[in-house]
Amino acid sequence: MSETIHDILTRAVRRLTAAGVPDASWDAKELLEWAGGPDRSRLPLMGEEPLVEDAAARFEEGVRRREQRVPLQQITGRTWFMGLPFAVSDKVLCPRPDTENLVERAVRAAEAMAPPRILDLCCGSGCIGVSLAHFLPQARIVLSDVSEEALALARRNAALNGVADRVSFACGDLLDAVIPETGEPLGAFDIICCNPPYIPGGEIETLMPEVRDHEPRLALDGGEDGLDFYRRLAADLSRVSGNAAPEDAPAPLLFLEIGCEQGPAVREIFENTGRYRVLVHPDLAGLDRVAECVPRPRKD
Ligand code: GLN
């Protein structure tokens, strides 16, 4: 007599709990559905039935990987962000609900502009840029990343969400992806959104195993104090919209995701350029999460 679905789930939850997986029961049910078994809504009716063989094998494989603390989203290859579906791989950070805060703020700011031009810098999976394209049908959006593999996934996510014809892609290190040598066209953007790597290098070893062992360092490591990318971005922005830039070159409005203790340092970095006033916004948990850098009117 083969095991029932209920028994199989119970055993999986025990294994995941023993492995230290935080939401073992939720994850086991997600893996069951991904494997081809019943989804939550059908479990009450089907719990006493056996699981078809193919689904049982796939479920076992999924549970085995989750026991090794591979993120659930990397196993199932998908997640949701801003209510939209996104493909996920081990080449990008899994989109985090914290980042929705940044998108909401950017959408509100963009709605007040004539068709805005927006850059999603360090786009990773494309969750920010693709969501913006979804919510702002008039906007022109560029997604850039240093990783070709991330960009390939961002392209897939643009197609998955039906916005591929309204976004474009650029590969390169930070602003190098979008500024040619002449330095002119940064003014081509009204808004730049960026969720850069911002974890201090030495802290990565202290993160949960899902992040520490399975998400790309390239997307996490912000250098010794985690602030490298903000410093580089501020310097690059001064290069193209600072004193050397044409008098009327507008600076873009910036929405930057930050670590919860980085607000004061990021404010200082961007206010020191003389070009920005910085507002630090908390997320729903009350932790500083977004630095909004508002361009100052040019005086010189
Ligand atoms: N907030 C992410 C984490 O806690 C890090 C995101 C980033 O470095 N951009 O893992």
What's the CATH topology label of the largest domain?
Answer: Rossmann fold
List cofactors, ions and other ligands: glutamine
Share of β-strand residues: 15-25%
CATH architecture title of the largest domain: 3-Layer(aba) Sandwich
Number of individual domains:
2
At the fourth level of CATH, the homologous superfamily of the largest domain is Vaccinia Virus protein VP39
Order of helices and strands: HHHHHEEHEHEHEEHHEHEE
Helical content, roughly?
25-40%
Segments where pLDDT lies below 50 for 5+ residues?
none
Global outline: elongated
Mean pLDDT: 92
Termini gap: 83 Å
Strand order of the largest sheet: 5-4-3-6-7-9-8
Number of helices: 11
Q: Strand tally, please?
A: 9
> Which structural class do you get from the secondary structure elements?
alpha/beta
| Sheet of most strands | 7 strands, mixed
What layout of secondary structure does this protein have?
Blueprint: H1 5-18, H2 24-34, H3 43-46, H4 53-67, H5 72-76, E1 78-81, E2 84-87, H6 100-111, E3 117-121, H7 127-135, E4 140-145, H8 148-160, E5 167-171, E6 191-194, H9 209-214, H10 228-241, E7 253-257, H11 263-271, E8 276-282, E9 288-295
Parallel strand pairs: 3-4, 3-6, 4-5, 6-7
Antiparallel strand pairs: 1-2, 7-9, 8-9
Helix pairs in contact: 1-2, 1-4, 2-4, 6-7
The structure holds glutamine (GLN).
